């Protein structure tokens, strides 16, 4: 909802008092948006609230604390810009928080989202989750400041910026605007944590119950519950402190850096930097980058694993196009080769006197990439499961039922002339019995055990709520390289262009090629490898090429090479001068055009050469047509269809009369001579086919996302059994034809791939999407470009059908992977994603269930982290998810039934002014219910992943019928026992007395014994066989608990009153007939239900 204005007067600030601001939706990040409701508080109504809080002894204050939206709805008034006091922030989950509004003015225009904040005016702003949100009084919209634009303005407005930097006054102003470059966390004290824990509704209800039980003389029971609550609070405080310590360890300490200010270099700590600062990096700065910045000159290598999860270091080079458009597009691109991110570590810095390494700070503090990561940890996007929502609804129903019970019991006791205090105690006691405060918390029991079992299998869980979601995954998306296939690649063979302009295979690169062939020079020169601490690191493909062709870095001084612009010097291992090449310029790999190039100069006084290497289609586009081999297209299709990864290379000599350092990339990369192909092999992991088979049999749709070609991806899909029962795959014929799809009536060329015969069949092209959708025996393989076009052109029904058909997605960029995940979620699919590198981070973060095969800090965004880096862990996670759903659901059912059992027994006793005693309540809760609850939560998942998925709702008809039948049996058994005891022993039972409840008589003893047996019987019926859990007999803890507790309870039924157990539990002497009736009512109905239901 956009800002709307009513009664808008003139543009004068004095008239803004009559401007009424309505709600506005503000996007804070790609994943987070909020609705803002500005208002001013009515002093009269606020006073009424204060009086109510005082009169209610603070209870009303607690209510307002838990439900702040109630305060807003009561006290808020429409307001203008001048009198705004508070902003209600409503997040995507509907949670409301109140933020106080402050005001400030600026002496110069400050860039904001698509606008500028005006000067000399009072600007309202508030703090929300470590961000400052301002109200633009000129456009009447809430905005975030744009520090990137401000940094560019500071750079562009000063011609001598690289020499002067910022002055002291500007730094002071910038620090006031954006704050210090600090990831400052408010340290939680034990008192503050304790305050928030104690004020939780669960603990307050426990406190209320304890006080009530103390008034009713249940001293020992009350003390036990109180001590358990204290232990729970202690562990909550301990976990909160440990979480704070983990976040502080990620933030780390600040290092010193060289900054240019006031025309001179200064040594400053990283937390003293501001937006627009000019940082001068030196070769010794092997530190952690303190800000997000754009490289203005020089080059460096950084470890971005903390940010992206990519294990391969990234090379960063200076941004040449310093226009505003280029500056901002790079600043917003997390994968830009010109942007440094806060939290990444410098591995190598190439800074020389003639070309220093300068970085301009564009984002600081919580606005930086590292700051966003810390914000994600501080304020995680909690996902509320359907089970939890249903449990809260169930709890509300129980509250309503308890109110009716309280009303009936109070009226009954009043008619029997009970004391007022007795009526209050008994009525409130019913509430504490029928409403277990820990009811919603029981849903976390299965999750807690699943987390423990996953940790035993070396799987870390960063988002526990995702465990239950994993049990109902509809689609699982897998990255290809490093996930389905091995991460390590090896050079299988090379092809070079022969004298007949055809590609000819070289079985062994070193034996087939001449020592100084072009393809050898391209292999050792056209790369971005670096030497760090004596080891060569970089892209696995480049490492493989460099090793096969015996590449070696050498020091230029060894051969008396003193080129001014030399980046590095390499040789192919030969001792002659002709084998030495010095690279003077590097055109870094661009993920859009999918290639890189270098300018290399030989040591033999020959003209410089341009070497290029990249995707075959990309290299083809810059080569002279007459140099393209005649068998190129056929060979490329054959190699790709066999699963090989193919790179092409080309070259051309350069003229020496041009400035090779300044000439544009477009002018360099044209009319090249095609040289050959590098063919790489990445073997499929042994466990991949079995994992795909299991998921297919479980009816979980599988999709493979890859940056490779369609043919390579289809081959990998077939070899890893992705296609399952699909006999045919419609494979997009031309990977570029996606650009021509403009409407839903357009048709695309497809090839039909026969999965079983491993061959392509002729098809009548073009094939309509309706034909593919209606073919139940076929799957689809498309590119990211076609997916993008289809999402724009097709209606939702067709697009949903296409998604369910698509098994292979090739040529997928990180943004397109993210887009596919979002499309799946848009159609209400539970999406799982399994990946291992930087290209997967965005998709991992947005998926419902994400499994990372990398353990870097960036993968904190993933729900699960596989320390073994095994794809089989996806199966384990799904199995544990299903187990946690069923276990939590069963624990919830048992807690509800336990409340029904105790309620039915006590309620019928209350009607005769009887009650259980202190020791009996203790025995029921701590000797029966608690051990059985703990034991039943230790069921482990089934070994097999079945095609069925567990229900995610508590209000399923069969579940409600099951609970209704159990409740009926429980209440009927208790009622029959009361009828029997009263009819056959009415003279021996104490008569109604208006005073204290009687706790020692035959009816109380029989009801107590029956209640204990019902606890066991209900537990056994609830924990009958499930396809999602291991058989009951395998849970030794549960079986042992049931046997021991069952024997003890049966043994108590036949004890005499003189035995110490009977004395402690106040069990009176009972006739043998009573004992058999109790056993019959407590066992036979549940044995029947166990075998019938």
From TrEMBL:
Gene3D superfamilies reported in the protein's UniProt record: Calcium-transporting ATPase, cytoplasmic domain N, Calcium-transporting ATPase, cytoplasmic transduction domain A, HAD superfamily/HAD-like
Keywords of this entry: ATP-binding, Magnesium, Membrane, Metal-binding, Nucleotide-binding, Translocase, Transmembrane, Transmembrane helix
Reaction equations catalysed: ATP + H2O = ADP + phosphate + H(+)
Transmembrane segments: 46-67, 193-212, 218-237, 393-414, 922-940, 960-981, 1002-1022, 1038-1060, 1072-1092
GO biological-process terms attached to the record: intracellular calcium ion homeostasis
Domain P-type ATPase A residue range list: 255-376
EC numbers, comma separated: 7.2.2.-
Broad EC category: translocase
GO cellular component labels: membrane
Domain of life: Eukaryota
GO MF annotations, alphabetized: ATP binding; ATP hydrolysis activity; ATPase-coupled monoatomic cation transmembrane transporter activity; metal ion binding; P-type transmembrane transporter activity
UniProt topology in membrane: Multi-pass membrane protein
Main localization category: membrane
InterPro entries: ATPase_P-typ_cation-transptr_N, ATPase_P-typ_cyto_dom_N, ATPase_P-typ_P_site, ATPase_P-typ_TM_dom_sf, ATPase_P-typ_transduc_dom_A_sf, ATPase_P-type_domA, HAD-like_sf, HAD_sf
Protein name: Cation-transporting ATPase
Gene field: cta5
């Amino acid at each position: 909802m956009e800002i709307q204005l009513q009664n808008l007067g003139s543009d004068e600030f004095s008239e803004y008092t009559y401007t009424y601001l309505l709600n506005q939706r503000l996007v804070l990040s790609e994943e987070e948006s909020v609705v803002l409701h500005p208002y001013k508080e009515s002093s009269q109504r606020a006073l009424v609230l204060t009086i109510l809080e005082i009169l209610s002894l603070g209870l009303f204050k607690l209510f307002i604390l838990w439900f702040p939206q109630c305060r807003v709805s009561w006290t808020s008034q429409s307001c203008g810009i001048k009198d705004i006091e508070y902003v209600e922030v409503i997040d995507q989950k509907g949670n409301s928080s109140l933020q106080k509004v402050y005001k400030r003015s600026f002496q110069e225009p400050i860039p904001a989202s698509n606008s500028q904040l005006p000067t000399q005016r009072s600007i309202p702003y508030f703090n929300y989750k470590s961000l400052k949100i301002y109200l633009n009084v000129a456009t009447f919209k809430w905005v975030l400041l744009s520090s990137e634009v401000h940094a560019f303005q500071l750079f562009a407005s000063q011609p001598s910026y690289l020499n002067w930097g910022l002055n002291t006054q500007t730094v002071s102003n910038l620090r006031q605007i954006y704050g210090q470059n600090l990831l400052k966390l408010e340290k939680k004290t034990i008192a503050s944590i304790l305050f928030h824990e104690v004020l939780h509704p669960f603990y307050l209800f426990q406190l209320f119950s304890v006080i009530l039980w103390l008034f009713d003389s249940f001293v020992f029971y009350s003390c036990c519950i109180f001590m358990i609550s204290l232990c729970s609070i202690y562990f909550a405080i301990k976990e909160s402190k440990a979480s704070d310590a983990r976040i502080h360890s990620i933030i780390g300490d600040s290092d010193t850096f060289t900054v240019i200010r006031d025309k001179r270099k200064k040594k400053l700590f990283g937390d003293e930097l501001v937006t627009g600062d000019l940082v001068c990096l030196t070769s010794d700065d092997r530190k952690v980058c303190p800000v997000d910045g754009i490289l203005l000159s020089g080059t460096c290598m950084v470890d971005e694993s903390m940010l992206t999860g990519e294990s391969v270091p990234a090379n960063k080079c200076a941004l040449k196009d310093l226009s505003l458009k280029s500056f901002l597009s790079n600043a917003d691109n997390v994968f830009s080769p010109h942007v440094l991110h806060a939290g990444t570590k410098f591995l190598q810095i190439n800074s020389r006197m003639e070309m220093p390494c300068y970085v301009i700070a564009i984002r600081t503090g919580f606005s930086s990439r590292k700051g966003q990561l810390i914000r994600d940890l501080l304020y995680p996007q909690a996902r509320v499961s359907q089970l939890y929502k249903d449990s809260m609804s169930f709890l509300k129903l129980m509250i309503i039922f308890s109110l009716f019970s309280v009303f009936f019991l109070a009226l009954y006791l009043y008619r029997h002339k009970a004391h007022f205090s007795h009526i209050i105690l008994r009525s409130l006691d019913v509430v504490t019995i029928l409403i277990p405060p820990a009811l919603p918390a029981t849903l976390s029991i299965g999750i807690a055990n699943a987390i423990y079992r996953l940790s035993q299998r070396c799987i870390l869980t960063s988002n526990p709520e995702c465990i239950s979601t994993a049990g109902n995954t509809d689609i699982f998306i897998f990255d290809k390289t490093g996930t389905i296939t091995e991460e390590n690649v090896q050079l299988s063979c090379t092809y070079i262009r022969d004298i007949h302009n055809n590609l000819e295979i070289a079985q062994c690169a070193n034996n087939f090629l001449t020592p100084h062939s072009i393809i050898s020079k391209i292999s050792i020169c056209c790369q971005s490898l670096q030497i760090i601490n004596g080891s060569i690191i970089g892209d696995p493909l480049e490492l493989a090429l460099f090793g096969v062709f015996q590449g070696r870095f050498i020091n230029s001084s060894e051969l008396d090479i003193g080129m001014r612009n030399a980046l590095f010097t390499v040789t192919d291992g030969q001792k002659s001068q002709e084998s030495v090449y010095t690279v003077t310029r590097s055109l870094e790999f661009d993920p859009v055009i999918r290639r890189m190039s270098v300018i290399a100069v030989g040591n033999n006084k020959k003209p410089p050469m341009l070497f290029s290497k990249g995707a075959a289609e990309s290299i083809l586009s810059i080569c002279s047509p007459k140099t393209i081999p005649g068998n190129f297209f056929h060979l490329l299709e054959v190699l790709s269809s066999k699963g090989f990864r193919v790179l092409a290379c080309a070259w051309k000599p350069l003229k020496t009369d041009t400035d090779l350092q300044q000439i544009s990339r477009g002018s360099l990369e044209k009319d090249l001579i095609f040289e050959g192909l590098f063919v790489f092999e990445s073997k499929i992991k042994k466990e991949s086919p079995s994992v795909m088979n299991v998921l297919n049999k479980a009816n979980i749709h599988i999709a493979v996302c890859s940056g490779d070609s369609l043919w390579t991806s289809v081959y990998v899909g077939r070899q890893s059994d992705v296609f399952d029962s699909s006999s045919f795959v419609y494979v997009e014929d031309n990977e570029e034809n996606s650009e021509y799809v403009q409407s839903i009536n357009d048709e695309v060329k497809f090839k039909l791939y026969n999965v079983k015969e491993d061959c392509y069949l002729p098809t009548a092209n073009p094939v309509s999407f309706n034909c593919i959708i209606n073919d139940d025996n076929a799957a689809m393989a498309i590119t990211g470009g076609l997916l993008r076009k289809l999402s724009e052109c097709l209606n939702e029904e067709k697009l949903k059908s296409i998604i369910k058909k698509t098994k292979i997605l090739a040529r997928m960029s990180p943004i397109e992977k993210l887009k596919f995940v979002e499309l799946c979620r848009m159609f209400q699919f539970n999406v799982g994603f399994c990946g291992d590198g930087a290209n997967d981070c965005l998709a991992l973060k947005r998926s419902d269930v994400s499994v990372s095969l990398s353990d870097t800090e960036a993968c904190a965004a993933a729900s699960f982290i596989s320390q073994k880096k095994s794809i089989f862990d996806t199966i384990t996670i799904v199995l544990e998810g299903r187990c946690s759903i069923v276990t939590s659901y069963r624990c919830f059912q048992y807690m509800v039934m336990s409340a029904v059992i105790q309620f039915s027994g006590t309620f019928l006793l209350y009607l005769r002014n009887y009650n259980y005693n202190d020791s009996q309540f203790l025995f029921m809760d701590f000797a029966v219910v608690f051990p059985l609850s703990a034991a039943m939560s230790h069921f482990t998942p089934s070994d097999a992943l079945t095609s069925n998925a567990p229900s995610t709702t508590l209000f399923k008809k069969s579940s409600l019928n099951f609970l209704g039948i159990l409740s009926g049996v429980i209440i009927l058994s208790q009622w029959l026992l009361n009828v029997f005891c009263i009819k056959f022993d009415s003279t021996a039972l104490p008569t109604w007395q208006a005073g204290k409840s009687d706790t020692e008589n035959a009816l109380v003893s029989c009801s107590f014994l029956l209640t204990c047996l019902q606890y066991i019987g209900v537990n056994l019926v609830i924990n009958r066989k499930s396809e999602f859990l291991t058989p009951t007999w395998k849970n030794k803890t549960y079986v042992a608990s049931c046997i021991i507790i069952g024997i003890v309870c049966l043994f108590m039924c036949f004890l005499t009153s003189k035995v110490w157990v009977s004395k402690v539990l106040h069990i009176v002497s009972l006739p043998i007939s009573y004992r058999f009736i109790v056993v019959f009512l407590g066992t036979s109905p549940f044995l029947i239900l166990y075998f019938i239901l």
